[in-house]
Amino acid sequence: MRMNSHIQEKEQFKKLFQKERIDRFEDRFKILDVFLKSDTHLTSDELFEIFKKEGLGFSRDFVTETLELMRFYGFAQANRFQNGSPRYEPLILDRRHDHMVCAKCRKIIEFHSKALEDLQMEIAAAHGFHMLQHKMDIYGICSQCLKERSDLIPLARARAGETATIEKFLGGRRFEARMLSMGIRRGETVRIITNRGEGQLVAAVENRRFVIGSKMAFKILARPEAGPGKQRGSA
């Protein structure tokens, strides 16, 4: 079914781009062909590197321009995950889906749920709202990364949106006393608000927000909330 969709997309691409007299049609068609075969989420730089390895002399600007033309004419769509560079994927008209994005390994998982779409329509109707389209990106940690993760991690390794229970302090009594003065103690459940991997980390305990440096956050060991398929205390 997906192969048939690609054939249809190529035929429509030829008709539309030739009718609109888009320049360098043959080169742009090669870009479309590789793009559809990839069937994944690529940045313009990643697609450029594919052509560079194959010895095709497309410039970076030409690849980006072609992707934007494909987006404009409905053959590609662009997504920004976690405010990163635009990632392009084929826009197959009969294939709707949403995304789950792993905050650790950056894997992007596509999924489709009719029940979810029906619920969105129901909610929109309840508010007298006419929905034209929707976009859902769920951020979390994929099953593989959960399997590889230790039960206890430095708070500095927790991801934005994650909750974890503080279990241990590595900085001695003086460090623990300092944490207590900030309202951070063993057994508290912490929700990570912002963690960019370096610099300051912003978290919350109940309704209290606090900011600590990454060096301090590495001295706080926490137990992440158990994910699906992984029980607390498992290896």
Could you characterize the architecture of this molecule?
The strands form three sheets. Strands 6-11-7-8-9-10 form a six-stranded antiparallel sheet. A three-stranded mixed sheet has the order 4-3-5, with no helix packed on it. The protein is elongated, with a radius of gyration of 23 Å. The longest helix has 18 residues, at about 1-20. It contains eight helices and eleven strands. Residues about 230-235 have low confidence and may be disordered. It has helices at about 1-20, 25-40, 45-55, 60-70, 115-125, 145-150, 170-180, 215, and strands at about 75-80, 85-90, 100, 110, 135-140, 155, 165-170, 190-195, 200-205, 210-215, 220-225. It has three domains: about 1-90, Orthogonal Bundle (Arc Repressor Mutant, subunit A); about 100-145, 2-Layer Sandwich (Dna Ligase, domain 1); about 150-225, Ferrous iron transport protein A (FeoA) (SH3 type barrels, Roll), CATH 2.30.30.90. The protein has about 240 residues and is α+β, with helices and mostly antiparallel strands. A hairpin with a 2-residue loop joins strand 9 and strand 10 (about 210-215). Helix 1 (about 1-20) runs antiparallel to helix 2 (about 25-40) and helix 3 (about 45-55) packs across helix 4.
Descriptors:
235 residues, alpha+beta, Arc Repressor Mutant, subunit A, Dna Ligase, domain 1, SH3 type barrels, 3 domains, six-stranded antiparallel beta sheet, three-stranded mixed beta sheet, 8 helices, 37% helix, 23% strand, elongated, disordered C terminus, Transcriptional_repressor_C, Ferric uptake regulation protein, repressor
